[in-house]
Amino acid sequence: MIVTGAGHAGVQLADSLRAEGFSGRITLVDTAVGLPYQRPPLSKDYLGKTADPEYLPLRARSFYADRDVELVEGDPVVSIDRPARTVTLFGGQVVHYSALVLATGARPRRLDIPGVDLAGVCRLRDAGDAATVRAELEHARRVVVIGAGFIGLELAAAALDRGLDVTVVELGSRAMGRAVCPQISAHVRGAHEARGVRFEFGRVVTEILGADGRVHTVVTDDGTRHPADLVIVGVGVLPDDVLAAQCGLGTDDGVVVDGYFRTTDPHVWAIGDCARFPSRHTGLLTRLESVQNAVDHARTLAKTLTGHPTEYDRVPWFWSHQGATKIQIAGIARTEGPVTVIGDIGRGKFSILRFQQDTLVCVESINHPAAHSSARALLAVPGAIDRTTLASVDFDLKRAAS
Ligand code: FAD
Question: Does residue 149 line the site of ligand 1, with CB under 6 A?
Answer without folding.
Answer: no
